[in-house]
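Appendix B, record 7
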Amino acid sequence: MKLQSMAKTRGGLRMGSHLDVDIRDGVESILSVDELERICSLVLREEEVERDCYVSVSIVSDEEMHEQNLAWRDVDAPTDVISLECERPDDPDLAPGEPCELGDILLAPAYITRQAATFGTTPADECRLLFVHGLLHLLGYDHLDDDEAEVMEAREDELVAMLATDGDLTGVRVTRHEGDDA
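Structure tokens (predicted):
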């Protein structure tokens, strides 16, 4: 099922962020499209992105995530989230006023649900954390070394603290890819 959404200016949400959500057949999304939209708008606003941005979100099975993880990251296992950056909002090759195709985020709800129990979060909170994490990757944040990871994790903490959550997520280590390249 493919759903399109556009954030409008209401309650401080950023106008011009366009979210395209594709929920694969047989897969149930943990978060509603409205909540994904609100989180996306919040992150873009807080990162001071002024250009219209398009973000594609695919809610996929563990099997599809495994295939994509192998194809894109050469990791032969499923994972929680994959971010595939297309353009950056500050790309000098984009004409003034031209929208930015920020990129694609894949979320695997079954994997996320299992992982939430491991980390003591709810599936919804785990998904919120991972969606923020994925958006920050699309905006150029990374965690390939300790310094980058500290910057990314601090920003994740700041953003997650602004979300309505099921529990206290401040200080939760979001960058959980120990020994992983991505």
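Remarks on this record: The chain has five helices and five strands. The radius of gyration is 15 Å.
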